[in-house]
Design brief:
alpha/beta; 328 residues; 434 Repressor (Amino-terminal Domain); DNA-binding; DNA binding; Rossmann fold; 13 helices; elongated; 5-stranded parallel β-sheet
Length: 328
């Protein structure tokens, strides 16, 4: 079946294609009788015709899209929740979010030139050449980073602080020998390396020896093997800081498999406060991230960037804190 066009609507309603375009695309400053407008809308409804979003973009030079660029990360509960909140809040301003995960050799420029977004939001820093080219094209650019950043349009969630909070909490409970459970997936290295750096820094600050690092897959044998390594030393590990809650759950399972009790023999703390953390046995202590506040900030930053002359919103103050449960 051939695709419907505005010419079909024009024939059906007995007006010109120009009039159809003005009516269906909401053209301002054009005097068209209401009876004619209604005739065009009725004809379009009978035929099942809707204006092309791509054509509207070509005419206006802008779409209603916000392009959200996600690096080649695994998409777990945290990123999924962030995007869900972000999409909902921008939809209230009539903006749609197109999520692009940066994989493969295709240049980012090919994508933004094809969809002509009003703004591009990066969940990690853009290459300077990409950011400059988008700004020169009139596209608003908003970024985020895993480290502290002086740019007021860049949101930072310092990952080293997460590791520091984990060790602070464990040390407050009297633990002096700390283990770290690291993920195996290389795509998580940007997060894992920074969180581990925070663990190392806090151990050094408190006068503790460096953490014993074990890679833990999301299965019981891997968790059990790590537990054996942590406990084999003459000065065995008594508390484990895990990369995230999923890795922490594997550690808990491995400790049980080795006949070790949590927190009596080995305490465990995770990151993210996923729903399963509350259901674990014992319930998992974790570092909570204010994903809803982060999404609200990023949405507000996008809207501020689109409203010329508006300053970026204030950064949220409390985006990280420990949720203490039975595992520590």
């Amino acid at each position: 079946m051939p695709r419907l066009t505005s010419a079909d609507v024009a024939r059906e309603s007995g007006v010109s294609r120009t009039t159809v375009s003005y009516v269906l695309n909401g053209k301002d400053g054009v005097t068209i009788p209401e009876s004619t407008r209604q005739r065009v809308r009725d004809a379009a409804a009978r035929l099942g015709y809707t204006p092309s979003a791509a054509a509207r973009t070509l005419r206006s030079g802008r779409s209603d899209l916000v392009l959200c660029v996600v690096p080649d990360w695994t998409i777990g509960p945290v990123i999924d929740t962030l995007i869900d909140h972000l999409t909902t809040q921008l939809a209230e301003r009539g903006l749609s979010v197109l999520v692009h995960q940066a994989r493969g050799p295709r240049p980012l420029a090919e994508l933004w030139r094809a969809v002509t977004p009003r703004a591009v939001l990066g969940l990690s820093p853009f290459a300077e050449d990409d950011a400059r080219a988008m700004r020169q094209a009139g596209i608003r650019v908003v970024g985020s980073t895993l480290d502290e950043d002086a740019d007021p349009w860049t949101f930072a969630v310092p990952q080293t602080r997460i590791g520091q909070l984990q060790v602070e909490h464990l040390a407050e409970r009297g633990h002096r020998v700390i283990g770290y459970a690291s993920p195996r997936d290389d795509r998580l290295a940007a997060f894992a390396d920074r969180r581990l750096a925070g663990v190392v820094q806090e151990c050094e600050r408190l006068g503790l020896r460096p953490p014993s690092v074990q890679v833990v897959d999301l299965d019981v044998p891997s968790g059990a093997a790590a537990a054996r390594e942590w406990r084999a030393s003459p000065d065995p590990v008594t508390a484990v800081a895990a990369y995230n809650d999923e890795v922490a759950l594997a550690v808990l399972a491995g400790l049980r498999a080795e006949g070790l009790r949590t927190p009596d023999d080995v305490a465990v703390i995770g990151v993210d406060d996923i729903p399963a953390a509350r259901l674990a046995a014992p319930a998992l202590t974790t570092v909570w991230q204010a994903i809803d506040a982060q999404a609200s900030y990023l949405a507000a930053a996008v809207l501020a960037a689109l409203d010329d002359g508006v300053d970026p919103p204030a950064l949220p103050s409390d985006v990280l804190h420990v949720v203490a449960r039975d595992s520590t």
